Amino acid sequence: xxxxxxxxxLLRAQLRxxxxxxxxxxxxxxxxxxLASAIFLVNGAALAQFTGATRRLxxxxxxxxxxxxxxxxxxxxxxxxxxPAVAVASPVVEVDAAIAGRTEPLPVRxxxxxxxxxxxxxxIEGLGGATRDLFQADGIVLSAAAATALDLKAGDPLxxxxxxxxxRLRVVGVMPKTAYSQPLGLMDxxxxxxxxxxxxxxxxxxxxxxxGADAAAFRAALVGRLPAGVFxxxxxxxxxxxxxVTRAYRVNLNMLALIALWTGxxxxxxxxxxxxxxxxxxxxxxRALGVTRxxxxxxLAAEGAFLGxxxxxxxIVGGAVLATAMLRVLAGDLGNGQLRVFGATLxxxxxxxxxxxxxxxxxxxxxxxxxxxxxxxxxxxxxxxxGAGDPAATVRTGWRxxxxxxxxxxxxxxxxxxxxxxxxxxxSIAALLFAAVSLVPTxxxxxxxxxxxxxxxxxxxxxxxxxxxxxxxxxxxxxxxVSFSLMVAMAIMVHSFRQSFAHWLGKLLPADIEMxxxxxxxxxxxxxxxxxxxxxxxxxxxxxFRRTLHxxxxxxxxxxxxxxxxxxxATAARVLxxxxxxxxxxxxxPPPAWVSEAMVDRYGVTPGARLRLPLGGRWRTFTxxxxxxxxxxxxxxxxxxxxxxxxxxxxxxxxxASLWLAPHADADRVGQALRAxxxxxxxxxxxxxxxxxxxxxxxFDRAFTITYALEAIAxxxxxxxxxxxxxxxxxxxxxxxxxxxxIGMRRGQVIAMLAEEGIILSSLGAVYGLIVGFGLSLVLxxxxxxxSFDWSIDLAVPLARLCLLGAILVIxxxxxxxxxxxxxxxxxxxxxxxxxx
Amino acid sequence: MxxxxxxxxxxxxxxxxxxKRFAADRPAVLDGIDLELVEGEYVAVxxxxxxxxxxxxxxLAGxxxxxxxxxxxxxxxxxxxxxxxxxxxxRRAVGFVFQAFHVLPYxxxxxxxxxxxxxxxxxxxxxxxxTTRMLDALGLAALAARLPRxxxxxxxxxxxxxxxxxxxxxxLLADExxxxxxxxxxxxxxxxxxxxxxxxxxAGILITHSRxxxxxxxxxxxxxxxxxxxxxxx
Lengths: 837, 234
Ligand SMILES: Nc1ncnc2c1ncn2[C@@H]1O[C@H](COP(=O)(O)OP(=O)(O)OP(=O)(O)O)[C@@H](O)[C@H]1O
Ligand SMILES: [Mg+2]
Description:
The complex is a heterodimer of chains A (837) and B (234). With 837 residues, chain A is α+β, with helices and mostly antiparallel strands. Among the domains of chain A are: 1-59 and 244-389, no CATH class; 68-229, no CATH class; 525-679, no CATH class. Chain A contains 29 helices and 21 strands. In chain A, strands 12, 13, 14, 15, 16, 17, 18, 19, 20 and 21 form a ten-stranded mixed beta sheet that branches. In chain A, a hairpin with an 8-residue loop joins strand 13 (540-551) and strand 14 (560-565). The relative contact order of chain A is 0.12. Chain B is of the alpha/beta class and 234 residues long. The mean pLDDT of chain B is 86. Residues 22, 29, 47, 49-55, 99 of chain B line the site of adenosine-5'-triphosphate (ATP).
């Protein structure tokens, strides 16, 4: 009860005396909560949309039997349909059709509308009157999203590319938005088989089991009875795939957003400490008048919690607004691309929002707790006289705590991921940051003790003042050290990633020109004749064809990418960014395969081990000859020789090619000549490697734009903390300045003294932040990144940029200090009492 | 002892062999101080600057703890209480006028005066009434709404006194309460102090350098390096 009264009293006073500080605290928490909740909401909305769409496609199926893109013979469907446990079986041809002139393929399903109607009722109902027209040989019904994306309406022609052949379909209907939210085309199964050159083949069968049948047991029993590469998939796995595939990305983005909140917590800590320090007299008086230690502590902590609550509330509202805007403008894509959706709307998620509100309050209360405790601990008789506690004790406890936390942080970095998430990595970063902040007093004292007297009165005074006020100096540094070191760590991590990415691009784009059919489409390719014709194009010195396709290795994980290309054990290290190789062994071993790091992480494949791949309906064995780094295919990629692939499948088709120009040949001219030799030229991308590289790096940078934005916000919050701490100490030292002026120090000299204090402090902070940031970047690069994504990156430090950042920080701090000095030296008597900035 | 305490009157304040020293290399500020005040007793303490008068009051109020010896306040031995309990006792039973006033700069005169009542949870209506009465008694009624920065040193001092008295404490500890006042206001203020101590049958200690002020008390003690003694003894 007492605490409540004290809290009210203090808050009233604060509102009157320091609205600026309160506003800053509220704002920093609001910003952090807004960013974190907005990102969470956007990802959640996109994911919900995806999941909802997939659920539509799964419908009432209990088992989805899925084969490779190339499909399996229809006979399997007949066998499955006859199984006594199966109530309904629905055959499906599922392709991602290449659309002429588009890079994005259109997912198309060939179905038997009557059978599918029993499983995907809501979807098929959306066909409405178009069901009859579906049986026209070239008829396709589009979902509303597909019609919008392709800018088509009923009656329009739609050209898909099959092999190297443009094929005209006719849009016979558009489903309402409610039937299916994402892009999709529906065809009759027979037409689809005919159009996509898959007569007699299926690649999916949806099954509903008879009542009472055990779906899990049925799936388990099915595994042995299906041909190689065909797997029974549980509906839950299918529906959860979007969530699984994007989880690491989403979690990391959320963590990043929390950095702003985190910095906000340190800002509350900084400003609250400074404010407690300055209110020392008032607080001691309250103690003398009978406010107990506990009441004072609780009141001050409640002050922090209250500011947090206010900020969190504003933040949540702001977050919802921001999220709505992001969904509208970015279609839910925050830089990853996998979560780009159509028509996602914000869902009201009270629990999540309550969670963010709670985090905001907690973080702010935690930030206020330490200063509150320190203030309550001070003996009132001493505090009334203006004593500030024992700096030696601050240094001693800080040193011990810092060492302990540092050791903990280092230890945590060695722990493995939890559920594929680098939870210990994040804990390690938190511990290291706390350690860094705890060690600031020790470091400051050691450095200032070593500082020589310069003989310049302002500088000497500045150093003496800092030495005497380690507590205050440390506090003003905490928020900036935290935000700056996090920024440094992120900068190093992103730079390292970019360098590794650029190196990887170089390895993968060795030629002059790259050409490919629309990526991720599985209908377009060049057959052997077409390849020969392309290779004969004048101006080409050399051409290398590749075949890429998606391949499911089991029924649980997302398909991996198989790349069949010209490669041998001798050339592998040259053409792939190889990380590890196994000893080269002679031919009795199965043919070699080179796997990406994701394969190692997800399937436990190691160099030298055997790898079985379902090719041409049979399991073929390969030897893992090496591990390479791949930043493009997050679910895993495998490279095998083209000859081995063709031998196993009889498939000679290619989907990509690298071209080396003959001397003096012109890339544009060759590109045109190549197009002239293609049957469906609009469906093929022909680009110089330089362009591909520039474009890829641009995409990379865009993906990290949000990262930079979040970081910049964190640093701004940190700088605001420094500004506040400096101006509040400057104002608290008015009497000191007045005295210095009386004994003959000029105004300019006082301001210079403050600016010099600012420079000393912020240089200390910048150097310290650089060192701490480097340490954190090691955790980011080697723990958080490695555990979140299944790829490694090499450490690279952008020294020049970091120094520039540090310099900007120092200058900003010096300017702030001088500015607050001006306010403290000038001003009237009234301002002297109103200790506000 | 000049005045034999009546056996019927309870002891409100007692110091027994209280010792306080701030640093090991300096002599103790308080060295074996004994003092006993019974209900309704009001004493003045005089002494040279730096002799330890303020320290004595701090120890009495539990703002500072003695190195040894025993302090009994309103019948309770402070050494048996923890900091919270001492604080609550102080809130209820002690009125303290600080040598350096100490008022909250951001509260008005009236708000500063009513602070102890607010901390005690006195309902607003009663709080206002008592505050107004106290301001009236000290001739501050016209200044109620002003902030400390709009007041003179003497006016602030009287606010600090009003604050010390507003909750009718059992023990009044006043450290140079009239140092900044003109003789007439000083006399008036000292009368209020004395009247309050007598009205609530508590005990009061007045620290002062002024003989005239000291003479408003029941008896005068002096503090020096040898300890606390009745003035008659010197
Ligand atoms: N916190 C402290 N630390 C060290 N020494 C102290 C402390 N407080 C007081 N002293 C010393 O103790 C002695 C007594 O101080 P005190 O304030 O009690 O004197 P006083 O009798 O009230 O003097 P004045 O009449 O000037 O107010 C002084 O010598 C002072 O220097
Ligand atoms: Mg004194």
